[in-house]
C-alpha cells in the first residue's frame, strides 16, 4: 500500500526505582501486535536524559515524518492507562539519569507555556473504554514536569500537535505487559481514526468553500 500511515511510538529506558520500565515493555508488546496492515509502525527507546531527547526528537520527526508520534512513559502513581492532553514548557527541576536538568528549567525558550495535542483525548478515552478492552483508560492534563512532559512538549512543538502521550502504570500494578500492549494498540487505532475523520472534515470544508466561490 503506497499510502500507509506512518506511526512512531517511543518508550523510555529504566530510571530510578523503575529497573524495568513498563513503557518500553508495553511498546515492544505493541510492536509484536502491530497496528494493522494499513499502518507502518516504528518503535524507539528513548533515554531518560533531557539533552538526549533534545537531540533525538528532531531527527525522528525529520527522518520518519510520521502522521502521529506517540510517546509512552511510566508513572508510579498511575493505576490506569492515562492519556495526556497537553505538554508544558516550564518547571523542569528534577535531575535526569545524567544528574542534569536544563538551566532555564524549560523546553523551548520562546515557546508557549502549554501545547495541546490536536487529538481530543476525552473522545479517544471514551471510545476505548466503551470497547470492553478490560483495561481502564483515563485523561490527564499534567504529564508531571519530568522527562515525559519534556518529551511530549518537544514533540508537540516539532509536530504541530500531531503527537500523543500515554502514561502506563508499572507492570503488574494492575496490568500485565500483554494488557498494556493491547491498550496501546486499541488507543492508537482510535487516535488514527480520529485524525482520519478530521482530515476528511477539512477536505470536505475546503471543497465546499471552493464550490461556493465558483458561483460568483
From TrEMBL:
<dbReference type="InterPro" id="IPR036440">
    <property type="entry name" value="Peptidase_C15-like_sf"/>
</dbReference>
<protein>
    <recommendedName>
        <fullName>Pyroglutamyl-peptidase 1</fullName>
        <ecNumber>3.4.19.3</ecNumber>
    </recommendedName>
</protein>
<dbReference type="InterPro" id="IPR016125">
    <property type="entry name" value="Peptidase_C15-like"/>
</dbReference>
<dbReference type="GO" id="GO:0005829">
    <property type="term" value="C:cytosol"/>
</dbReference>
<dbReference type="GO" id="GO:0016920">
    <property type="term" value="F:pyroglutamyl-peptidase activity"/>
</dbReference>
<keyword id="KW-0645">Protease</keyword>
<dbReference type="Pfam" id="PF01470">
    <property type="entry name" value="Peptidase_C15"/>
</dbReference>
<keyword id="KW-0788">Thiol protease</keyword>
<dbReference type="InterPro" id="IPR000816">
    <property type="entry name" value="Peptidase_C15"/>
</dbReference>
<comment type="similarity">
    <text>Belongs to the peptidase C15 family.</text>
</comment>
<keyword id="KW-0378">Hydrolase</keyword>
<dbReference type="GO" id="GO:0006508">
    <property type="term" value="P:proteolysis"/>
</dbReference>
<keyword id="KW-0963">Cytoplasm</keyword>
<comment type="function">
    <text>Removes 5-oxoproline from various penultimate amino acid residues except L-proline.</text>
</comment>
<comment type="subunit">
    <text>Monomer.</text>
</comment>
